[in-house]
Design goal:
Layout lengths: L2 H9 L1 H9 L2 H8 L4 H11 L4 H22 L1
Length: 73
């Protein structure tokens, strides 16, 4: 694994945690450092950090506030 890739992983706590939980990525990154993009994509899906998940969270928050306001009315 290249030194640049190691710094990138260490500076991103989510990426570092994902790598520790899925150790098969060590071998993959040693063989092909360009696969970091695929690892980041899988990490975002696993930790629900994609754009779709963020929009879903905002929608849930708005619905909760709306329900709360209806109860107060």
């Amino acid at each position: 694994m290249t030194l640049e890739l190691q710094f990138k992983i260490k500076n991103d706590p989510n990426l570092f945690r994902y790598l520790r939980e899925n150790s098969y990525w060590y071998k993959e990154l040693n063989r092909n450092p360009a696969s970091i993009k695929q690892m980041e994509f899988e990490m975002r899906k696993r930790y629900k950090m994609t754009t779709v998940d963020k929009i879903g969270n905002i929608k849930k928050s708005i619905e909760m506030v709306r329900t709360f306001m209806d109860v107060l009315s």
